[in-house]
Amino acid sequence: MADELQPAYLIAGGDRPKVDRALARLRGRFEPDAVEFHDATVTNGDDAVAACNALGLFGAGTRLVVLEDVEAWKAPDAKAIAAYLKSPAPGTTLALVGAELKKDAPLAKAVTGHGSVLIWDVTAKGVPRWVGEQFKLHGATADASACRLLAELVGDDLYELASEVEKVATWASGGTVTDADIELLVTPRAESPPWNLTDAWGARDVGGVLRAAERMLDRTGDPVSRTIPRLVGSLTNHVRRARAVRRLEEEGLSSQEAAARLGMKPYPAQKLYHQVQNFSGAELDDALVRLAELDHALKGGSRLANELELERALVEITVRD
Predict the structure, then answer these.
(1) DSSP E strands: which ranges in 27-186?
(2) pTM > 0.85
(3) Using one digit for the tens of pLDDT, what is the confidence trace for 158-183?
(4) Helix (H, G, I), strand (E, B) or coil at 274
(5) What is the distance, to the nearest Å, from the Cα of residue 196 to the centroid of all Cα atoms in its chain?
(6) Which residues pair with 96 in a beta bridge?
(7) Cα distance between the two ends of the chain
(8) 63 forms bridges with which residues in the sheet?
(9) Burial class of residue 120, CB neighbours in 10 A (0-12, 13-18, 19+)
């Protein structure tokens, strides 16, 4: 933020910890009793403008008017803010704070040219890099693999991730955080992504398949009786798609052509093309039959524990003959 206060700041994005820090810095430039908060879900643009103008009438130093959750606003609210910013109240700063908001949203356009637009988002792929940046903020460093592991264990809730980073960084006391540190200090609470299981199956990695399945069972709050059928259903759908891809490949179609035929995105189809190289058509047929047998066993067709039935089936559809 510039040293000179702007008439308005739009502070938004999916990176909520960063949004919070930016708002805290802005609030720190005002006396506590000079800050007024409003909820944009119940306060429209016209009311926000009225609050700014009313505060300006006092003429007793600077004031900050904060509107939270502005992503709830519509075009008429943005229009009211745009009209106000053509002649803003002297000594009053308007802070518009929200979550996900596009940079070309009407509210962003309203503030552009009259104030500061600060929008920070974090993509799913960018979460591990974001974790590394948070460690640096706390005076620590972390291996790239440690950042990925933390994101895998905690999930994509940036507030929870920020809390865990602060805890681990404090423990590290300025040192370098490794995978071993993350495993020691962080309690898993995010579901293991299903592609960990399907990727291991596609590589015919028996140990990887069993580990991925165990993680999926450990990291969900649902009972095993519900989690296992969900896992089996996900894997069955993947094997069914692999079988379809195999047949299209035998017809001479490329991965892109198969993706279009099956209604898939190109990248997953390309991954499947690589995976099916490890299986014959007969093996894929057998895998689907075995998964159907597993589904029957889970629904009362076996006296064995569901976990044991799952483990046996996973080994059988993954191991090389």
Answers:
(1) 35-39, 63-68, 92-97, 116-119, 141-142, 176-177
(2) no
(3) 888 999 999 999 999 988 999 999 98
(4) helix
(5) 17
(6) 10, 67
(7) 64
(8) 92
(9) middle
